[in-house]
Structure formats: structure tokens, C-alpha cells
Amino acid sequence: MNSVTELLATAEQLLSSWIQSQETPGPNRLDVVVAVYDLLPAVQALQQSGWGYLAAITGLDLGPEAGQIEVLYHFCSGAAVVTLRVPIERDAAVVPSLCGAIPSAGVFERELMEMFGVTVDGAPNTDRLFLPDEWPEGVYPLRKDFEPNP
Amino acid sequence: MHTSEHSEKSEKFIIPMGPQHPALKEPGHFEFTVAGEVVTDASVRLGYAHRGIEKATETRNWAQNLYLLERVCGICSHVHATAYSLGVEQLAGVEAPPRAQAIRTLVAELERIHSHLLWLGVAAHEAGFDTLFMYSWRDRETVMDILEELTGNRVNYSANVLGGVKVDVNDEHAGAIRRGLDFLETRTRHYLQVVCAAHQRHWRDDGGTGNQAGRYRANGAGLRCGARRSH
Fold first, then answer.
1. Interchain CB contact of A133 with B (< 8 Å)
2. pLDDT value at residue B137
3. B230, A77: Cβ pair inside 8 Å?
């Protein structure tokens, strides 16, 4: 086993109690679906064992018909990438803030809030990060039904 | 009449900086709360040059997006187009031929070298070491010239197409690359010596913030991490 395989095996074991389903999109990757109420314990499990670092949070709007948004939390350790994929309701999009465990999550969460209209519960800072002051409330540019030039 | 809590609050000193400021490479707005010499809090607003590239890709076709994504960054252009090409190729179930993959890697490595020379210069400039800044940026031209010879372009080299590359490396290119890299290797070893010798006098790096920087995932500051090191 090379070190990437070992790292992924360790992560899989650490996360095992919360994994609902999993995929391997590439040889250095593990993509696991985690329920929103299991996110914090799953992140804490990675954090407490010192597995990697939070590299990015991605929002993924599956569109009004699917009615779901996925929030992807990417953790990297060396060349190994573990993604926690958290599906939430598009009309009631709420995830807990990771800032208690990972202060640097703050900027990613601010972007997620303003671009996708996801409420990040407990976020220490909910100010806009990229959007201008005059941007209308309740308009989220990275949602699929947002038209840039109507 | 002030309560002690109120007077403490009213003594907060906030220094706003930006969105336009001569020290900033790109526009950004920062507010630093200071107590004397110590920064006790800071806030950031970005987006003054936000182009909405993610959204723009949704309304363009696969080929158009290749050109759009090469322009994510004006320094590391190739890597974005390469990441995009690899993603599209994975979706399509195709793989670039070995020679094309090798040329992609070659261009990516040349890009990495000029990117590092650029930031060495910026770091030197910020530390007040402008001689090193000018030398490293002069040497960076060597890589830009090689890329221009290879692809016809100095910044957005546009080496990728979906499924491969649009340039080939001939013997002339190979010779120019070898000569350029020999020169840069000598120069880089020299700069390493210069920086280490000048470290005590010139570089404003107290090295004492490693733990905090690690918690906030900053690179540098004596941390043994960073994308290149990890991968």
C-alpha cells in the first residue's frame, strides 16, 4: 500500500460511523455522503486525529427540479483528497458552521452563504465577501435559476 | 460619564485599508483593529475584481470555456486550462496521448518556475530588498521567452486543446529550454545563497507565528506545508 492509499483507508475508517454511501472518483480520492446532522462529528473525527486540512468548500446547486443543494467539504492530506458531500434541501438550506473547529472555514462559508443562499448556522461572520453592497437581498448568483442577463 | 466597558470600546482604533491602496496587488478592503502596535482583529471584503467566471461557464460551450478558464489567473494560466481539460476528458472518457501529456507537464513546470521567480521578487520587494526583486524578474523573462517560442504567447500560452495540446516541441525548442534552465539553475542557487546570507538583516520574518498560521492554514511562515510540498 502506498501512502495515499493508506491515508484514504485511515480517513475511511475515521469516518465509518457517518458514511451513508461512498465513491472513488480518482485513485487519490474518496467521496463520502454524510448527513447534515453528522457533519460536525465527522469533521471533528478528522480534526482530532490530525487528518489533513480543510482545502475548500464547494456549493453545488442541483437545480429547482431536483430540489437539492450539495455542500462539499474537501479535506487534503498530501495527495489524498477526501470530500464530505452533504445533501440539503434547496428551500431550507442550512448547514452548521465549522468555524468552532476550523477558524479558516469562515471565508469559504461566507462565499457559500452569498452565492448559494445556504444558511450557515453559528457562523461568526455572515458579512458578504465577494458581492457588492448594492447586490439585492435574497438573490444568489450561483443558483442554477439565477439569470445573469435577464 | 462612561462605564469602563464603554470607554474600552470607544478606544478601539480601526485602520481601514483599500479597496484601492498602493500596497495592494489587487483591490481588497481590510479593517484592522489595533491596540497600539498589536493587531487585535481584522476583517476582509473581496470581490472588487470578481468576474463571475463560474457562472459564465454555465452559458458557454466546452471549447469556449477552455479559453475563459485560461484567464482565471494572469500568472498561472496553463494550470487552470489543464485542470479543466482533464475534467472534460474524464467526463468524455478520453485521455490525451502520452506526448501531449508530457508537453502539458513541461509547460506546467515552466509556468511553476516563472511563478516562483515572480513571487520571490514580490517577497523581496515587500521586504525592502528591491535589487533581488529586479534580478528575479529579469530572470523570469527567460521562461517567458521560452514559452513564447514554444506556444507563441507569453502569458496565456493556450497550449491545451480538449484531448491534447496544440503545440509540439522540436529540437530547437529543446535546446532553448535546456540552455534557459541551466542559466536559471545557476541564478536560483545564487539567490538562495544571497537570501540566506541576507536573512538576518533584510527579511522581516520573526518566525514566531507558526502555530497561529497553521491554525489558519497560511503557507510560508516557516511551516512545513504547502501544496507543492504535499503533492
1. no
2. 96
3. yes
